[in-house]
Amino acid sequence: MKKQKMKNILINDFNYARSLIEASLDPLVTISSVGKITDMNEALTNITGLTREELIDSNFLDYFTEPQKASNVYEQVFEKGSVADFPLTLRHKNGKLTDVLFNGSIYRDEKGNVEGIVIVARDVTEQKKAAKELTEAIMFAEMATMIAEEAKLKAEKDRLIAEDAMKAKQQFLSNMSHEIRTPMNAIIGFTKVVLKTDLTEKQKKYLRAIKISGDALIVLINDILDLSKVDAGKMVFEQIPFRMASSISTMLHLFETKTHEKNLKLIKIYDHRIPDVLVGDPVRLNQIILNLVGNAVKFTSKGKITLSTKLLDEDEHKVTVEFSVTDTGIGIPDSKRETIFENFQQASSGTSRMYGGTGLGLAIVKQLVELQEGSISVTSKINEGTTFSFILSFQKTKADTELEIDLAEYDTEVSNVKVLVVEDISLNQLLMRTLLDDFGFECDIADNGRIAIEKMQTTKYDLILMDLHMPEMNGFEATDYIRNSMNCDIPIIALTADVTTVDLAKCKAIGMDDYIAKPIDERLLYRKMLGLIKKSNIVEEPDLTELNDSAKIKCTNLKYLNTRTKSNRVLMAEMISLYLEQTPILICNMKQSLAKKDWEALHAAVHKMIPSFSIVGIHSDYEEIAKKIQEFASTMQQTEDISDLVLQLENVCNQACLELLEELNTYKNTNDE
Fold first, then answer.
1. CATH code assigned at 349
2. Which residue, among 464, 462, 499, 458, has the nearest Cα to 478 in the 3D structure?
3. Among 97, 123, 149, where does a domain finish?
4. Exposure string over 237-247, b if 16+ CB within 10 A, otherwise e
5. In terms of Cα–Cα distance, which of 333, 267, 263 is closest to 301?
6. What count of Cα atoms within 13 Å lies in the side-chain half-sphere of residue 560?
7. Residue 459 lies in a domain
8. CA dihedral sign of residues 47, 51, 56, 60
9. Is residue 6 predicted with pLDDT exceeding 70?
10. Does residue 643 sit within a domain?
11. CB 480 within 8 A of CB 510
12. Which of 81, 1, 97, 10 lies closest to 47, judged by CA?
């Protein structure tokens, strides 16, 4: 009975041990001190493909792909007592490999003698597969990043090539504009001058023909230049008050002669619900309508042309107006209606031959409308006529507009005006002298900028008309010298045959007050000259409280900002406004942080100040002061110096704000004018 009980206990212990061994999902094996397998679980038979009988008393090293490595680990277990997570590979009898992590420890008998080793081989095949896939994914991601970087570099290279090509195109157009406009200025200008003299009807007829031909050539040049500006994304739209009704009426007068010759009726239908004064770009509106009415006149041989306006919508801030130009002309085929707004497209191959033109007018019209967030459409029937309609919105305003000055009515308040004309071409010199004589202004001529500066040393002038492209010293160099070396604020108007955006921005950046394009519009020239002369004659009483402030050395220099923004005054004004908005807050944070000994907040406030120093041209010494404050804040130590440094930084930032506010007001006043 006692033996049976003992036997049952042994059986129970065996079954318990067996259940523990089989509970492991990972291969588990016991090995004797001489390296023979004494027991194992089913997981080992599955991973090797052998039966228990085949595995019992076999050498455990035989089932690893690297027996020597497995032997070394086996010996380490005896030396150290255990080994954890040693990577090895088990081999199935059919050749399949399983990656495992070898975990082993010794086991002892009842007397404490080492009998062997228990090994658990954790299957990490899936983990290694996932790790490999992750590594491959990272590698592919890195490769994709490299490819993307290469694509980015190529795109950047292509962009630079495109920009260079655009610059070359702009330079070519600039040069061609100058070369063509300069002689055209003299031709059209002198034609106007001669037409004012006593002539026979035949002479007037010939001269008008010359003027019309010259005007047609100028329209062609303007079309090409405007298209170039649109393509380059540099078309600029003004936002100024103007009277729409009078602007349209003045425009339609230009077509009276042509419509009379063709026996056409020119009808204007104006919606008088439209506010009298609106804010927008009257020049671009005129350009759109002139192109559309010009086309209508060109392609209509009998009947009428109607320009109509209709108020579509009005709220507190803006109005939306629909403009329509309807003719009774040749019409546009259905097949051409979709392409009529494309560059160099006309309704048929014979259109250009029969009617003239480049096919650029409608392309420019469409882009001028859409760049102002408007829309344009066309309806047409062959031999019945065409209607072009476009919709634009305009801001409402309570401001009044400047009335056009009639040359026949000179301003009697302005007298004894002396003008210096800086121009190197003799014909243009003579034309400008003639125009200024008509204005009642006295005139001196200088062939280039150097001679102009010499004349200014001995003679006082009220205004300078400055050509841009001249030998020895051009208009830009001369203006820079007058403004910065002579510190002279005499009004300067640029006379330019180049009306691309690049030179106009340069004119403003260098200190010119205004510009006028050749061929000269004498009414526009007189109006601009008069405005600048009157403005320069206004003498303000000095404010004694400001004299001391003006004596201070300026702490800001906007040269860097001017360069970075490419003389874009709108962008400069935005950046200055941002500085003025953020800096007082940072000064306040800096002072409060110091008072509370909140060193982390002090460090953060000063850190945000530093980048703006170089942008607005604050001396680098103050950047060093700011960095010293940061060092003190990092060490979290209160010292006598830190308060003084914070005060210095506060003073220079406050002075910078005052200077930049004055600069910002100057920009706004310039834009308002």
1. 3.30.565.10
2. 464
3. 123
4. eeebbbbbbeb
5. 263
6. 13
7. no
8. negative
9. no
10. yes
11. yes
12. 97
- Cα dihedral 93→94→98→104 (10° resolution): 0
Number of Cβ within 10 Å of residue 465's Cβ equals 25
pLDDT at res. 309: 95
Choice among 196-210, 222-236, 306-320, 544-558 with the minimum mean pLDDT: 544-558
* pLDDT of 376 above 90: yes
- Pairing relation of β-strands 418-422 and 442-446? parallel
Determine the Cα–Cα distance for residues 262 and 260; give it in Å rounded to an integer: 5
Residue 49 has pLDDT above 90, yes or no: no
**Euclidean distance between CA atoms 149 and 553, whole angstroms:** 47
Which of 187-191, 356-360, 535-539 is most confident? 187-191
pLDDT recorded at residue 374: 93
CATH value at residue 632:
1.20.120
Assess contact for 493 and 530: CB atoms under 8 A. Answer: no
Query: Mean pLDDT across the chain, nearest whole number?
Result: 78
Predicted confidence at residue 410, as pLDDT, reads 52
Mean pLDDT in residue range 582-591: 87
Report residue 320: phi and psi, to 5°.
-115, 125
Ramachandran area for residue 356 (φ above 0: left; ψ -120 to 50: alpha; else beta): left
User: What range does the domain containing 116 cover?
Assistant: 14-123
Max intra-chain CA distance, the chain: 155
> The domain that contains 110 carries what CATH number?
3.30.450.20
Compare 392 and 540 and report the one with higher pLDDT.
Answer: 392
Q: How far apart are CA 421 and CA 476, in angstroms?
A: 15
End residue of a domain, out of 377, 396, 415: 396
Split into its structural domains, the chain has a count of 3
Maximum average pLDDT range among 83-87, 192-196, 256-260: 83-87
Task: Please answer whether residues 212 and 250 qualify as being in contact, where contact means their C-beta atoms are separated by less than 8 angstroms.
Answer: no
CA distance 657 to 673: 24
HEC sequence for 514-566:
EEEECCCCHHHHHHHHHHHHHHHHCCCCCCHHHHHHHCCCCCCCCHHHHHHCC
d(CA 85, CA 105): 12
Listed residue (363, 391, 361) closest to 296, CA to CA:
361
Residue pair 405/527 in contact (Cβ under 8 Å)? The answer is yes
Q: Is residue 629 part of a domain?
A: yes
Top-confidence range, 4-13, 64-73, 319-328, 440-449: 319-328
Q: Is residue 539 part of a domain?
A: no
- What percentage of the chain has pLDDT greater than the value 70? 77
Instruction: Please list the alpha-helical segments (H only) found in 26-124.
Output: 42-48, 52-55, 67-80
- Cβ atoms 634, 599 nearer than 8 A: yes
Using a 10 angstrom Cβ sphere, with 0-12 exposed, 13-18 middle and 19 or more buried, the burial of residue 231 is: middle
CA distance 48 to 66: 15
Rounded average pLDDT over 311-340: 89
